[in-house]
Design goal:
It is a single chain. The protein is an alpha+beta fold and 75 residues long. The protein has a single domain, classed as HPr-like (Histidine-containing Protein, Chain: A). Helix content is 32%, strand content 25%. Helix 1 packs antiparallel against helix 3. The longest helix has 10 residues.
C-alpha cells in the first residue's frame, strides 16, 4: 500500500528526517512539483525548496518514521 503525507521541513529538521528515513527498509521519496528525490539522501532533500510543502511517498510502516512525519506534517 502506498502512503502519502505532506510535510514542511526547515534546514534544521532535514537531518532528523533523513536519519529516520535511512533506518527504514522500504523506499521513501520526497516530491515537490515535478522533482522527486530519495528521502534517504540528505543532499537530495536539501536540493528541494524547503520554503514549500513537500510530499512524502512511501510503501511501508515504521513507528519511528511515522513519529517524525507527525512532527512535520501540515494539513
Amino acid at each position: 500500500m502506498m502512503y502519502q503525507r505532506n510535510i514542511r521541513l526547515s534546514q534544521e529538521s532535514v537531518g532528523e528526517f533523513v536519519n529516520a528515513a535511512s533506518k527504514c527498509e522500504f523506499d521513501i521519496d520526497v516530491c515537490y512539483g515535478r522533482i522527486t528525490v530519495d528521502a534517504k539522501s540528505i543532499m537530495g532533500v536539501f536540493s528541494l525548496d524547503l520554503s514549500h510543502c513537500l510530499t512524502v511517498k512511501y510503501q511501508g510502516q515504521d513507528d519511528n518514521f511515522e513519529c517524525v512525519l507527525n512532527r512535520y506534517e501540515v494539513a
